[in-house]
Write a sequence for this structure.
């Protein structure tokens, strides 16, 4: 039980160290919300099985490498046919375009 908590704490500390504090992130297009949700749904094994797909309460933030991170929460079926529970996916924008989407 201690190992997952330590991992979560380390990820949070790393995120805080690499993020810059801006009132408005720089690299987001006007339609970033819809684009981020669509990017996450497109990467799912069973996109029609989505129960929950929403932007996280965590505001978008700029990273030091010039990308902007948007957190999307998703609950969908995995390859075994079972629901995974709510998972966070980071969608990264650079120069107004999505460059990557990674599960945490």
């Amino acid at each position: 039980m201690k190992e997952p908590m330590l991992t979560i704490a380390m990820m949070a500390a790393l995120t805080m160290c690499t993020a810059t504090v801006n009132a408005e992130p720089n690299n987001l297009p006007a339609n970033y919300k819809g684009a981020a949700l669509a990017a996450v749904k497109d990467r799912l094994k069973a996109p029609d099985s989505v129960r929950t797909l929403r932007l996280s309460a965590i505001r978008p933030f700029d990273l030091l490498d010039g990308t902007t991170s948007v957190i999307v929460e998703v609950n969908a079926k995995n390859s075994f046919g079972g629901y995974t529970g709510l998972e966070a996916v980071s969608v990264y924008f650079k120069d107004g375009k999505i460059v990557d989407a990674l599960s945490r």
Observations:
- The CA atoms of residues 33 and 55 lie 7 Å apart.
- The first strand starts at residue 19 and ends at 20.
